[in-house]
Structures are given as C-alpha cells and as structure tokens.
Amino acid sequence: MGTVASTSAETPSGRSIWIDVPDWAGNIAGQHVDVRLTAPDGYQATRSYSLASSGPSPRLQLAVDKLPDGEVSPYLVDDLRAGDMLELRGPLGGWFVWSPSVEQPVQLIAGGSGVVPLVAMIRAHAASGSTAPMQLLYSVRTPDDRFFADELEKLDNITYAYTRSGPPDATIGRLTKERLAAAVLPVGSAVFVCGPTGFVEAVASWLVDLGHDASLIKTERFGGA
Amino acid sequence: MSIFTRGFSGRGRDNNPALPPGQYLTEDFPVLSAGPTPNVDTDTWEFTITTETGKVHRWNWEQLMALPTEDIHTDIHCVTRWSKLGTTWRGVSLDTLFADVETEYDYVMEHSYGGYTTNAPYEDLRDGKAWIAHTFEGEPLDPEHGGPARLLVPHLYFWKSAKWIRGLTMMAEDDPGFWEQNGYHIYGDPWQEQRYW
Ligand SMILES: Cc1cc2nc3c(=O)[nH]c(=O)nc-3n(C[C@H](O)[C@H](O)[C@H](O)COP(=O)(O)OP(=O)(O)OC[C@H]3O[C@@H](n4cnc5c(N)ncnc54)[C@H](O)[C@@H]3O)c2cc1C
What we know:
The complex is a heterodimer of chains A (225) and B (197).
Chain A: E1 2-11, E2 14-20, E3 32-38, E4 44-50, E5 59-65, H1 73-79, E6 85-92, E7 106-111, H2 115-128, E8 134-140, H3 149-153, E9 158-162, H4 177-183, E10 190-195, H5 197-209, E11 217-221
Parallel strand pairs in A: 7-8, 7-10, 8-9, 10-11
Antiparallel strand pairs in A: 1-2, 1-6, 2-5, 3-4, 3-6
Chain B: E1 24-25, E2 46-50, E3 56-60, H1 61-66, E4 70-77, E5 82-93, H2 94-98, E6 107-112, E7 117-121, E8 131-136, E9 139-140, E10 150-152, E11 165-171, H3 178-181
Parallel strand pairs in B: 1-5, 2-11
Antiparallel strand pairs in B: 2-3, 4-5, 5-8, 6-7, 6-11, 8-9, 8-10
The structure holds flavin-adenine dinucleotide.
C-alpha cells in the first residue's frame, strides 16, 4: 500500500505520480508494479505501470499516459491526488532490467510512454558511474508530448523521432527502418525497446533485419494495436 | 482486505462467470513476448519430443499437417490480465504426438524458436488438454501470436502456451523455464490467480 506524495503534469495527456511506500524493498531499473483500484462495490481493476525510479528509495515515481477510452489511466491522470492511498504490488519483472553489471553499450528505444522504464535505466546508469555508453532514441508525437522533457533536455545522447510535428529541421513521420539504422548503436549492443505493441513489433523486427542479435534485444509491450 | 480507491467507480462490470479472478475481457489480441518476434519458416520447421533415454521423436511441417487435426473452442487467459472468450483454434492434440513416446518423467520443458522456455507438468499436456495449434479463427496463426505453430494449453495462463514451439523435453523435476525464472508462477492456474511467485 502506498500514499500519493504528489503528482505533476508531464505532457498534455500524461502525468508523473510520486508514491511513498514505507516498506518498499527497492527495485532494479526497468521493473514495474501492478496498480489495483477498488470501487465502493468491491469491483477491482489492475494495470501494470513501469517505475521511473529505481534503487532503495521508498518514494516511487510512475508516469502515466491517458488513453481517452481507458478505464484505469484516466483515473490516474485526472482524478488521483496527493494523500490518496494506492494499492501496489511489486516490483515485478526480472527480464526487462538494466543494472551496472551489463557491460555492453546500451541502445534504448522508446515509443510514447514506453520511455518510463528507459528513463529509470538512464538515471541508474548515471548514478552508477558505468562507463558503458548508453543512448536513447525516443519516438513521440510532438515535442510537447515528451515525458521527462526537462530532464532529458540536459542529456546529449538522445535522438528524437517526432511522428506528428516538431522543429523545422526535424524529419517528421513514423520511424522507418532506414532512420532506425542511422540512429542506433552498432550490432553487438544491448537493446531495450519499449512502447505500444505495434511500435515494439516493428522496431524489434527491423533490428533483427539490420543484423542485431535477437538475444540482445529485450522488449516490453505496453498494449494497444 | 483492500481499501477503496477514492473517486474510482470503474467501467462496466464483467460479471461473467467465465472470467477468472482479476481478469478483464478484451476483443483485441494483445502480445506478451520478451524479445523480437522470430521468423520461423515452415520449410525448415521441426518439432521434437526428447525423452530421458535421449530418444528424439521428430516431425517436420508436412508430417504435422498429415496428422489428425482437431478444432478447439476455448477461453484464453493472459497473466497480464486480459481474457478472450470463445476463441477457435485448429491443431494437433499432444495425445497424438505423445502416442508412441515412452517416458517415466512427470514434467516437461517447452522450447521455442527464439530460445524461450516454459515448464509444465506432463499430466497438464495430456488427455485432451493441450495441442500444437497452427490456425486461429480460420487463418494461419500470425507470427506475433506464435505462428507458424504454438502450444495451446488453455487451462493455464497463456504464457504456458509456448509461442513458436520447437520441442518438448521430458524432465524428472519441475524446473522453472524462462518466464518462471523471471518471476512468473511455476504452475500458473488462472482460477487460483497464480500469476507470480
Ligand atoms: C509491463 C507494463 C508496463 C507498463 N507501463 C506503463 C507506463 O509506465 N505508463 C503508461 O502510461 N502505461 C503503461 N503500461 C500500459 C498500462 O498498463 C495500461 O495498459 C494503460 O494505462 C491502459 O489502461 P486503461 O485501463 O486506461 O485502458 P483499458 O481500459 O485497458 O484499454 C482501453 C483501450 O485501449 C487499448 N490499449 C490498452 N493499452 C494500450 C496502450 N498501451 N496503447 C494503446 N492502446 C492501448 C485497449 O486495447 C482498449 O481498446 C504498461 C503496460 C505493461 C504491460
């Protein structure tokens, strides 16, 4: 059980939620929690959300994007507020994780809110002092839709791929295999791909076409088409 | 005992007795995979059953297709909480494939193209409870859903229905597979909500 410490807008449709979980045992970058909501009649709905935070801190950070016709995400984005209790289970997932023992260069590839567990990895990487290179390719609708924009702004190892609109000098439109090839670290790097299912399917199969070893590509599919 | 979530009323209630606890109905077919979808060619496809003596029983795609097929109408339940009711599959019963297999072992490791594994008790794969499925709703099974062929073990959470199935190995003990080593339950009964260990 956690208590919402604060929330803040990340994008027009998404926000960050900080939750205090006093007995939290710590988590590795990339893991997620299951959030369970309970209505007055006992009805429950549970969804998974990645942790943007990692390490021993009992203050967890989630970042949630609202699906307009969704059941849980509109509640978390529009209704939840500081002081609310939230039932969580986790940390979950032992595969889609990065820890400093990974020695290869790391290419992170995010679509939309898929950046959440990857930001946890960027933070853990910075905190660890690991010398393995790590870079991010972030596909997102427009500059306003970027999660963690201020924090990522300060980093120089990020390539943005805007799908709807962006700065005048940017190529706008969905990622293609060619643009992917130009933006990612060479074959032999560890790759983490996260986002909507269709995005992850396309990117992961292009990576394999480009010669990346399937066993070095880890994926997390958030759902949707 | 859980507390109520302030201000949450929830959407429609799926008061459907066919839904195991904590599951919701979906019309989509979501995808749970840990890596890229492998490209498996039926020209080189093969399925094996390996026993404790080292004996390997093999089928290629043509041989699989020549075996008697069954139509399976079933509900499926994913550990990530979606369920689909009344899905239709076509495939070959594991009873047919195990007909000439001699083994004393009680557990099975399922191996996939792409390297993933998941474990199950042998008795859960017998007596009309498991198939190699190659057709979904009348169409060849999509690669992202495990095509050309996946295991179908619908009474367990769906990760036990290994996608891109390539072989089964008999085991003396119930050793955990890839998914189980990464946090999923060793058995995975949706009615007991055995999601994680
Ligand atoms: C391991 C894991 C980690 C996740 N981490 C995050 C996270 O950090 N931040 C976050 O915002 N979400 C995350 N998700 C997605 C999240 O769990 C929910 O699926 C999402 O918030 C939608 O829930 P909902 O109840 O609002 O929509 P639902 O009521 O479940 O669905 C409404 C409609 O949207 C479709 N849909 C469901 N999920 C998606 C999707 N991701 N994209 C597009 N369409 C979809 C459904 O098929 C349905 O038609 C994660 C998912 C997984 C599996």
